[in-house]
Amino acid sequence: MQLTKEKFKERFERKLDDYFENDIKHASNSELCAALSAVVRDGYAPQWRRTRISETHEGNKQIYYFSIEFLPGTLLKSNLLNLGWLKTVREALKEMGLDLDTIAAAEPDMALGNGGLGRLAAAFMDSLASLGYTGNGNGIRYKYGLFKQKFVDGYQKELPNDWLKDDHWEVRRESKAVPVRFGGKVEMVDDDGWLTPRYEGERVVQAVPYDIAVVGYKDGITNTLRLWDAEIPPQDELKYPTIADRRKVEDLTSILYPDDSNYEGLLLRLKQEYFFVSAGLQSILNYFIKDLKQTDFRKLPEYVAVHINDTHPAMAVAELMRLLVDEHRVDWDTAWKITVQTMSYTNHTIMAEALEKWDLSMMQDLLPRIVQIITEIDRRFVESLKGKTSDDVIERTRIIKNGRVHMAHLAIIGSHSINGVAALHTQLLETDVLKDFYELYPKRFNNKTNGIVLRRWLQIANPELSDLLDQTIGTKWRDDSNEMLKFENFYHDTKTLNRLEEIKLDNKKKLAKFIKKETGIEVDPTAIFDVQIKRLHAYKRQTLKLLHILKLYQDLKNGIDHPKRVVIFAAKAAPSYVFAKQIIKVINETANMINNDPDIHGKLKVVFLENYNVSLAERIIPAADVSEQISTTTKEASGTSNMKLMANGALTVATMDGANIEIKDEVGEDNIFSFGLNKDQVYKYYADKSYHPRNIYENDPVLRDTIDSLKEVPNCNGEPQALVNNFLSDNEEFLVLADFEAYLAAQKAVEATWAQKRIWYQMSLVNIAHSERFDVDKTIQRYAQDIWHLKKLHIEKTK
Ligand code: 26V
Questions:
Q1: Which of 358, 379, 575, 601 stands 20 to 30 A from 265 (CA)?
Q2: Which residues of 498-532 are buried (b: 16+ CB within 10 A; e: fewer)?
Q3: What is the pLDDT of residues 464-484, one digit of tens each?
Q4: Which fold has domain 454-773?
Q5: pTM, entire model
C-alpha cells in the first residue's frame, strides 16, 4: 500500500489519540512505539488476509518450519522496511519533531532463542515471505525470552526478560486451539478391526496459537509465525483446582532453556518439545482436512513439508505417525511413506554434548503412545537392515539403545533430507559424525550453507553504507543482492574508498558514544574496532582473543608500539556453564586493568558490552573493523555473525572453519586474514592424542609470558588460574595454545594492513560486494528447490 507522509501523520496521531488519549508532544517513547506499531499492523493486515485466502485457494505446497527457537529481534523497522515505508515514515516523523530510532528503541527484543540457530529460523521466515513462498514458523510462545545479562563485579548475572509486556505484534487465535495429551496409561484395543489406543489418567492441555505476521519484502507475501501457549482446557477447569496445578500448565511455556552448551535431559524440556510438535502437526492436519478439504493422506506431501530444525522437534516423526495411524486410520506402511516424504532435518552442530538422547523411562511416563510408536519405528528399522549391513552398524544407528532414545537417529530415519549448514560441516557429518547414516542413505544428505537477512544488516543497521551503494551501483541491489558484486568496480575509486572510511568512522563514533553511555569507558573512534560477538563457548575461543589482548598489553608496557585498538566483546554464557562464566569474569577484570592503566596512554581498550542481542548487534556490526571468527577448526558448524560483519565491511580474522572457508573462497585469500590448524591437523591431534600444550608453553617464551601474565589479572577469585589450568591440560579440546602463534601472526598482518588505509578499504569493499553470496534468500531458494519443492504463491498485490 502506498503511504504518503501526510496520510501517515494523520493515522499515527489518530492511533495515539485512540490508544492513549495523548498527542505527540506528551506521549512517551513506548506510547509512540505502540501507536506506530498499530499503524504498521493496519498496513499489513489486508496482505496477511489475502495471503491466507490465496494459500487455501491455490493449495500451493507450504513449508512448516518447526523450531524450538525463533529470534526475530525487533520487528518495527523491519516491518517498515518490508512494507516499503521506512523512508517515508522516518521523514514524516522528523517533520513532526520525532526520531524513528529513538521510538524504535522502545520495542523489546523478541529473544526467543539462544543464538545462531534461533536467529537463522527468524531469517528463514523473513526470506520465505520475501520470496513469495508460503512458509509458516511453528514454535513456542515463551513468556520469558533469553535472560537479560548484567555484570556485577565482573560476573554475569541473569535476569528475566519479560518481553511480552510491551509486545505489539501477536494475535491470539483461540479458534485454532488444539488439545495436547500427556501422561496416563495407554492400552491398544480392537475397534472394528483397527487397533486403537485407549487412554486412561492422562492430562490434557490446551495449545493456543499466537500468530505473528511475517511481512515479506516489497512484493513478498505475509506469512505467519505461529507460537503456541499452554492453557487449561476450558472443559477441564475442575481438574486444575489449585494455583499449583495451574502453574504447572503455565510453566510449560514459561521459559526458554538458556543452555546451548550442554544437552540436559529435563522433563520440562521434553514436555515443551512434544507440546509444540503435537500442536503444530494437528494444526497442519486440520488445515489439510478442513481448509483444503482433502481426504487422501497420501497427498499430504504434495501440500505440506515439515522441517525439523535441529533435533528438538524430532518427535514430529513419531507424532505424525500417531496422528495418521491412530486418529486417521492410515495403515502403518502408508503412513511411514507419507511421514518420510513430509519430513526433512537440519543438523546444526557436530558437538557430541549437544546430541539429545531422552531417557526411555521418562519418555514412557510422559508420552506412552509416542514411545510405543518410536519402538515400532526402531524395530522395523533394525529389521529392514538385518542381513544388509553389519550388526555393528545396526547397533550404532538404531534409535533406542541402552534405555535411551536417540533423537538425531529418529530425525534421520524419518526424513527424506538431512543437511548441514556449511560445506565443511556437511562434509564432517558425512565422513565422521553421521558416517553410518551417510552410507545407508547417501542421497538424503546435502549441504545448505546458512545465510543472513542482508536487508536488515545493511538497510536497517547501516543506512549510510546503503546510501553509498545506491550512489555507486544504483538502487537495484536493494531488491537483488547479485547487484552488489558491481561494487567491486569501485575498487580503485578513491572517492568511494574515502567515503567508505568516513562512513565507518561515523558508525564508530556512534558506537563510541553508546559505549561511553553504557560503560563509562572512553574509546577513540579512530582506533581499530576489533569485534568478537557470539555466545560464550570454549570452542569459539574468546580465550584466544584474551591471550592476544594480554600480549598487546605487555608489549605496550614494554614500549613496543601497536596501532590503537579497541577490543569489543558481547556474549552471553549459559547460566550453568561455569567455565564460560569464568572467562567473562577474567575478560571483565582484564578490561578494568587495561582501561585504567595510564602507562599505555589509551592505546588499548577492552569493552565487554552487556546483554548481547539482535539490537546490540545492529549497533556493533556497522562499526566493526575486524571480525573475529576464531573457533577451533571443525567446531563451528557455520557461524552467521561472520557474514553480517563481512557485509558491513569488517575484515575477517578466521580459522578455516564453518562458513569462514566459503567467505575466503568468495573474497580470495588476499582479502581475509586466515590462520591456524586445518581440519586434518585438528583431527590428527585428536586421533593420536599428540596435543601437549605444556610443551608448547615451555618452548614458546612469548606464550609463556602471556599465560603467566594472565595469573596476574587482579580482583578475581581463582578464575585466571582455572583458565591457565585448562589451557595447559592435555585434554584441552579446543587447542587454544596450538593456534596462538599463528593467531599473533594474523594480527600482525592486520596491523600492517591498517597502516595502509587505502588497501584496508579496498579489502573492505571486496568483502561488502561479495557478501551477496550469503544472502539468506539464496539459501532459501536452495531449500525450496532441493528439499521442500515449493512454488511461489501468486497473490493480488495491495494497491
Ligand atoms: C553448541 C554446542 C557447542 C559446545 C558444546 C555443546 C553444544 C551444544 C549446542 C550447541 C549449539 C546447538 C545448535 C546451534 O545453535 N548451532 C549453531 O547453528 C548456527 C545456525 O546454523 C550455526 O551458524 C552455528 O555455527 C551453530 O553453532
A1: 379
A2: ebbbebbeebbeebbeebeeebebebebebbbbbb
A3: 999 999 999 999 999 999 999
A4: Rossmann fold (3.40.50)
A5: 0.98
